[in-house]
From TrEMBL:
Name of the protein: Dihydropyrimidine dehydrogenase
Top-level taxon in the UniProt lineage: Bacteria
Gene3D superfamilies named among the record's database cross-references: Alpha-helical ferredoxin, FAD/NAD(P)-binding domain
Domain (FAD/NAD(P)-binding): residue spans on this chain: 143-448
Taxonomic placement: Bacteria, Bacteria division TA06
Amino acid sequence: MAKVSKKKTPMKEQPRRERTKNFDEVPYGYSEDDAVREAERCLQCKKAFCVAGCPVEIDIPGFIELVRQGKFVEAARLVKAKNVLPAICGRVCPQEDQCEKVCVLAKKGEPVGIGRLERFVADWEAQHGQIAVPDKERPTGKKIAVVGSGPAGLTVAGDLVQVGHEVTIFEALHKPGGVLVYGIPEFRLPKDIVAREVQYIESLGAKLVTSFVVGMTRTVDELLEEFDAIFIGTGAGLPWFMGISGENLNGIYSANEYLTRTNLMKAYLFPQYDTPIVRGKRVAVIGGGNVAMDSARTALRLGAEHSIVVYRRSRTEMPAREEEIVHAEEEGVEFEFLTLPVKYHASNGWVKQMECIRMQLGEPDASGRRRPVPIEGSNFRLEVDTVVVAIGQSPNPLVPSTTPGLEVGRHGNIVVDSETGKTSKKGVFAGGDIATGAATVILAMGAGRIAARAIDEYVQTGRW
């Protein structure tokens, strides 16, 4: 047996000096030769831990073996038997904390590039015009409403329509995709990829209704008069702020607004798209997750001379994916670690300085990370003209607040049975960020798959 390389097959990327001048995707993806070379690293373990690490249960060794054999279409279709959004997951899912984390090769080197291979087969299938629509089961006569067209909702719709149910997706925005279109930048997830994956769900037979705000246009109770079951997947769209002095000054934005203007409303293409957005020269982004990295990298592309991530812990504790942190570093994003904003200072109503205090790490807190503790008397000021607050978000409150009998948790999340997605209201299921708070695309999809099975059983049997 040939010696297995300890490192993943490299993936070509846009040169770092060029990519901050455009919003084009940074990684180019694998060529056919790259993909086969990477697939040859897979050991085809008899007990595949990677499958157990996948929230949507993809046959990972199976599709990788097909790639190794050059059977790219067959590999794509095997992936899509479990994952209806492979081109998206291959780009944005944290494989390093899931399937790749438990890969046997990771013990002595780098794991198999499962995410890269998933992206490759999905793109190859589309680029070669070989996307096939699988046969559906006979119609059951049952009607399911899916509220929200993000990762959870699309997964539920794709699974249920294939077993013969009539599925209608209701999306509040004018474009489908949820966080995939409003939250994740073009350079990380091109929107034509999202559109392609949504079109696949529609080709399976799901109906899509946009600009339909459930909770305002119609309530859940009104939909229950028409549909046999409802899945709520409205995500986490309520941004958090810190509640510090000066936070209402001009020039201070939530990451939700900043990224929605850029991504969904195409502000970066002004004046082709007439969407205003601030183009600061000294931009501070508060937070250490993927949303913070997206915001900081976006600021550079919008012309910032300094894009500064302000994070209260050290680099080690940052929750963002390592790949996103590295890309940010390569592109020139600056980092102020162990730093906490405490107050904003203004000039003519606009933010001009951000007062901060230095932190030191204490004992671990409930998250397992060391707790940041302020250092008394260490206050200093950063010159800024724009601030983006990316410290998290809560579930969107509209549907829960307009649905009597729906139990809601302390943080505004819909309470669900984790094994079925059932809520406290008969016929209503939920999953994804509306139930868990902000999490990952693939975890939302996993919740959608669980709910889809339970919805199918409920509408077929009537048992709650």
